[in-house]
């Protein structure tokens, strides 16, 4: 990562913030960080002081293409190049007992526009600037992108979509030497997860018991693997999915079926 420039969405907290810190630790020359949460972005910038990395922060809603496009143009204007990107921003949370028979268009649209269309917006803006060969993107999906999650159909569908988008883009740009992969975290102890728990949607103890390692993951444990996929050590990995396997997901939900 030394001397290279990256763009990270969802950088104000959790996995995105941990990715930024990891890139700084690994010697990235510059990181363009974005999120809708500007207070969190300042906290992420502060975590990077002491490293030789220049961070530039911008408020960006990934569901709005004009904002994403302006952010990436600003990144190029400031850094002069972009070597890779981590598209991490996302929202989660079902709405209690919502089913596919009671889904509101507004809930569906909000989830898809951020988690799925947001990733498409990012890749559309980022790919034209990446070096050929050598550019790399990692998109964050979820274990719910491989297995449907009752009462969370919009979330699960958005994460299935991220895998399709990633594989399609990898096929389009592999011949140019741009690698595009997806990472599918299991339960990771971040705000998105704890917020769901507060709403009564999850039980972290029960979910931990369904993981192969018997515990929730930490954001930096995902960040290290994500940065491996961004690095040249993963030079022959594209269109791939790095999956944090879990066991029987639906049984861990606290919802009446
Ligand atoms: N924590 C988990 O258990 C888990 C598991 C699987 C996948 N994921 C995925 O990991 C990614 C990161 O989540 P996290 O666990 O770090 O949670 P988090 O809530 O800490 O981070 C998500 C970030 O995305 C930002 N965000 C939300 N909407 C946005 C928008 N419209 N535009 C730009 N930024 C926006 C939030 O402000 C927040 O900073 C998400 O895509 C999530 O779906 C998380």
From TrEMBL:
GO MF annotations in UniProt: oxidoreductase activity, acting on the CH-OH group of donors, NAD or NADP as acceptor; quinone binding
Entry's transmembrane regions: none
Regions annotated as coiled coil: none
PROSITE patterns linked: ADH_SHORT (PS00061)
BP terms from Gene Ontology:
fatty acid biosynthetic process
Q: Which keywords accompany this UniProt record? A: NADP
What InterPro entries does the entry give? NAD(P)-bd_dom_sf, Sc_DH/Rdtase_CS, SDR_fam
Q: Does the keyword NADP apply?
A: yes
Similarity field: Belongs to the short-chain dehydrogenases/reductases (SDR) family.
Q: What is this protein called?
A: Uncharacterized protein
């Amino acid at each position: 990562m030394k001397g290279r420039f990256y763009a990270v969405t969802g950088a104000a907290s959790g996995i995105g913030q941990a990715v930024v810190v990891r890139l700084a630790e690994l010697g990235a020359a510059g990181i363009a960080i974005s999120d809708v949460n500007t207070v969190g972005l300042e906290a992420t910038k502060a975590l990077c002081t002491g490293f030789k990395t220049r961070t530039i922060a911008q408020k960006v809603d990934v569901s709005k293409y004009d904002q994403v496009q302006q952010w990436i143009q600003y990144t190029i204007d400031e850094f002069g190049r972009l070597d890779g990107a981590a598209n991490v921003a996302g929202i989660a949370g079902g709405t209690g007992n919502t089913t596919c028979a009671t889904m509101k268009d507004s809930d569906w649209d909000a989830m898809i526009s951020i988690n799925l269309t947001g990733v498409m917006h990012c890749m559309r803006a980022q790919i034209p600037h990446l070096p050929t060969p050598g550019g790399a993107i990692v998109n964050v999906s979820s274990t719910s992108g491989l297995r449907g999650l009752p009462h969370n159909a919009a979330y699960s569908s958005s994460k299935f979509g991220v895998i399709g988008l990633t594989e399609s883009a990898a096929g389009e740009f592999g011949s140019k030497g741009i690698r595009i992969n997806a990472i599918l975290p299991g339960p990771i102890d971040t705000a998105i997860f704890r917020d769901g728990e507060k709403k009564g949607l999850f039980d972290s103890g029960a979910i931990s018991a369904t993981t192969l390692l018997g515990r929730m993951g930490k954001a930096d444990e995902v960040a290290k693997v994500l940065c491996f996929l961004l690095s040249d050590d993963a030079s022959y990995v594209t269109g791939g999915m790095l999956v944090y396997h879990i066991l029987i997901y639906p049984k861990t939900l606290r919802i009446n079926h």
